[in-house]
């Protein structure tokens, strides 16, 4: 007999792994509940243990958020001008950070998948990510990210960066945030209708690139990570960091502060996958946190039945860890700005553009079940098929919008104060 499993057997193995993953993990809502003691310990001690684990996970998520915020502020990738210039290929800070983060995060996944003791954590991460895409298909993975990309160029931001912009005092970032909340609420209210309209009739058999090609995860993920590393090096060679800084008006006298940031921030962001997978049992993402916040009014059984999407996002450590993560991004960006004396030095989008862009950002992210962090850093790193569709669609929406705005002169219109239109 051949030692290589057939595709059908491999699918069965995947399903068995997912079932094992489910059996290993309790639901997030149950993490804060006490069950009858099976070990002889008093019930209140078990409850204390569960609460302690939840607090520890939220603490780790908060620390990761601070590091994420510092990294974004140091490299200036959060600035609206950086994001907009990336879309018209006048600045490559965003691309360098993004590819470096995907590469380093994917190397983290490779290590977790290769070590037997950490393999269950990796399996849980894959299962959790794919479970968010069960009712999504190619249509939503194209349409949602395109909408997100349009909002990304308009607001000069993305779901994870908005909080860094708040911490760094970017003008009108607060209005982008308000638009994000409205987008999250709007999608939550419309999800029952949109899901019926867009849900695939049959579930996809192949959810990952490596399973569809009948290859081990490491065999494809490791070369992909190395390839992206080479691409980052080549971009840096042909478009060095000083050109990026000049294009956004950063003084070269500050080059030492930014030199290490541009070359290492993406790596630092990607390395955050390790504590999140091992402790929080999830991967980097941020857009669903806004849904958790706006869903707190869904407290009755009738409301839960009417708005199941919002109800499912309302409680549990599995939802709230992202809220803590993105909230502490504000603190990290603020601390970094104070240390670097760069607070209030960024330009922001005009108020109406910021608000509407924020709305499109979150509505598109939820329609596509992921944002630049979820689909980009985590989904591509886990070799999820739909993420490889979603990420190009995001940039297609962003690039086309950027060139349209450039043609009308709107791309370079910024304000210096919050509230300016």
TrEMBL record:
InterPro entries: Sulf_transp_TsuA/YedE
Bias type Polar residues, positions: 1-11
Region (Disordered): 1-45
Name by which UniProt lists this protein: Uncharacterized protein
Membrane-topology annotation of the record: Multi-pass membrane protein
GO CC entries: plasma membrane
Keywords: Cell inner membrane, Cell membrane, Membrane, Transmembrane, Transmembrane helix, Transport
Species name: Mizuhopecten yessoensis
Protein location: Cell inner membrane
Transmembrane parts of this sequence: 51-72, 92-116, 137-162, 168-190, 217-239, 259-280, 320-339, 351-369, 381-405
């Amino acid at each position: 007999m051949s030692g290589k499993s057939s595709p059908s057997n491999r699918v069965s193995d995947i399903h068995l792994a997912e079932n094992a993953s489910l059996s290993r993990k309790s639901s997030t809502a149950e993490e804060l509940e006490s069950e009858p003691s099976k070990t002889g310990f008093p019930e209140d001690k078990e409850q204390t243990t569960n609460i302690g684990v939840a607090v520890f996970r939220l603490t780790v998520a908060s620390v990761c958020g601070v590091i994420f915020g510092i990294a974004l502020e140091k490299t200036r990738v959060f600035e609206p001008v950086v994001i907009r210039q990336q879309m018209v290929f006048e600045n490559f800070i965003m691309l360098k950070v993004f590819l470096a983060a995907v590469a380093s995060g994917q190397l983290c996944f490779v290590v977790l998948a290769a070590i037997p003791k950490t393999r269950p954590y990796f399996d849980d991460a894959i299962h959790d990510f794919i479970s968010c895409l069960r009712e999504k298909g190619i249509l939503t993975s194209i349409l949602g990210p395109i909408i997100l990309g349009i909002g990304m160029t308009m607001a000069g931001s993305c779901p994870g960066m908005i909080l860094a912009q708040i911490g760094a005092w970017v003008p009108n970032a607060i209005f982008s945030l308000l638009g994000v909340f409205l987008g999250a609420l709007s999608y939550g209210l419309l999800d029952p209708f949109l899901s019926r309209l867009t849900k695939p009739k049959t579930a996809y058999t192949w959810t990952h690139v490596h399973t569809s090609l009948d290859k081990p995860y490491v065999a494809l993920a490791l070369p992909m990570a190395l390839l992206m590393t080479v691409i980052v090096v080549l971009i840096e060679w042909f478009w060095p960091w000083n050109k990026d800084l000049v294009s956004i008006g950063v003084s070269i006298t500050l080059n030492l502060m930014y030199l290490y940031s541009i070359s290492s921030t993406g790596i630092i962001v990607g390395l955050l996958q390790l504590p999140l997978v091992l402790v929080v049992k999830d991967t980097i993402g941020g857009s669903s946190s806004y849904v958790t916040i706006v869903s707190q009014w869904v407290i009755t059984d009738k409301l839960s039945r009417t708005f199941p999407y919002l109800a499912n996002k309302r409680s549990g450590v599995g939802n709230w860890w992202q809220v803590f993560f993105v909230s502490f991004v504000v603190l990290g960006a603020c601390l970094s700005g104070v240390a670097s004396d760069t607070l209030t030095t960024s330009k922001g989008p005009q108020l109406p553009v910021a608000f509407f862009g924020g709305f499109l950002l979150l509505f598109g992210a939820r329609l596509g079940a992921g944002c630049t962090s979820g689909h980009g850093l985590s989904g591509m790193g886990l070799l999820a098929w739909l993420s490889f569709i979603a990420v190009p669609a995001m940039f297609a929406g962003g690039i086309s919008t950027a060139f349209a705005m450039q043609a009308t002169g709107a791309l370079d219109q910024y304000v210096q104060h919050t509230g300016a239109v």
